[in-house]
Amino acid sequence: TLLTLYILYSGASVSNTGVRVAKSGKREKATFVTLARNQDLYSLASTIKNVEDRFNHQYNYDWVFLNDADFTEEFKEVTSRLVSGTTKYGKVPKEHWSYPEWIDQNKAAETRQKMKEEKVIYGDSVSYRHMCRFESGFFYKHPLLDDYDWYWRVEPDVKFHCDINYDVFRFMRENGKKYGFTISLREYDATIRTLWPTTVKFMNDHPQFIHENNMMDFISDDGGLSYNLCHFWSNFEIGSLDFLRSHAYNSYFDYLDKAGGFFYERWGDAPVHSIAAALFLDRNEIHHFSDIGYYHIPFSACPLDPVTRFEGKCSCNPKQDFTWNGYSCASKFYTVNNMKKPEGWQELA
Ligand code: GDP
Ligand code: MN
């Protein structure tokens, strides 16, 4: 058959489940991971096609889909058709998407009402809070992720502007990286008022978890007294699952969870992951993917470097790059790490 010929000549193979497996070369133990609802299917489908065209058709990495409800047959059919690696579908266990017993639900309802009046984005949403708590402390505990060392988080409706012509997971491993980001920015203060004081208490109780070469200067401008709200935007993450599985990270998450701020405030998974990365990792383990063109409403990262733009066939307008905008935290990241900013960054600041 044509399929057999394709396999013979391309060196690809089809497993007995009909799933395509990688052509050649050693892949990392890595997967894409997406939390989504069934109604996100078609926003996600175009993103998956984009990720495949820009990157994954060369590597055929797997894709894990998670949902607090059961995925529909349509969801599984459409997504499995688009992904070149194996697709896996998991349901979030109830305990990972509900109120822990120590949470006072009346108190939680009061904050939602208050945040609604103050027009805080997602301030009155219960599901958004479960989502943030899940992405902070549970997605990596799902059994479907047990097979992997690395993850790349993808959300519906995001877009990649440039070809990614190398294996980013291999890059992470070979360069000793544990956490990779594209966009960084400042969090809405109203959503995390007690996150830093809680973090300070945690640091005092567990000083052994703080890395000696940490990146406190990225998240605090006064040596740790206050949080400057800088965080890595977690809708894109390429990271080490071992980092999230670490004793330090899980002690931190459990401490935050006990404090209740996922429900009494509206703590996001982005500041939680970012603060943890900045405190528990060696600063050299955190990587800015300056060559990955990326969009999540309302911001784009668009590489300024002409060689990167040419080699990656980037389709974005560098004048719309958010990375070097005054509200971004990238400039701080480069400054505190003594890194060279790209030609032309000042025109965007
Ligand atoms: P935003 O980026 O902060 O505006 O939040 P999103 O609406 O994009 O949600 C973040 C991620 O969680 C996306 O991948 C969503 O598909 C997913 N998500 C958000 N809420 C829910 C939910 O109630 N159930 C499920 N299964 N996924 C959700
Ligand atoms: Mn989103």
TrEMBL record:
GO terms for molecular function: alpha-1,2-mannosyltransferase activity. The keyword Transmembrane applies. It is found in: Membrane. SUPFAM superfamilies: Nucleotide-diphospho-sugar transferases. The keyword Membrane applies. Keywords: Glycosyltransferase, Membrane, Signal-anchor, Transferase, Transmembrane, Transmembrane helix. The active site is at E237 (nucleophile). Its main location: membrane. It is a single-pass type II membrane protein. Belongs to the glycosyltransferase 15 family. PANTHER family: ALPHA-1,2 MANNOSYLTRANSFERASE KTR1. This is Glycosyltransferase family 15 protein. It comes from Kazachstania africana (strain ATCC 22294 / BCRC 22015 / CBS 2517 / CECT 1963 / NBRC 1671 / NRRL Y-8276). The lineage of its organism: Eukaryota, Fungi, Dikarya, Ascomycota, Saccharomycotina.
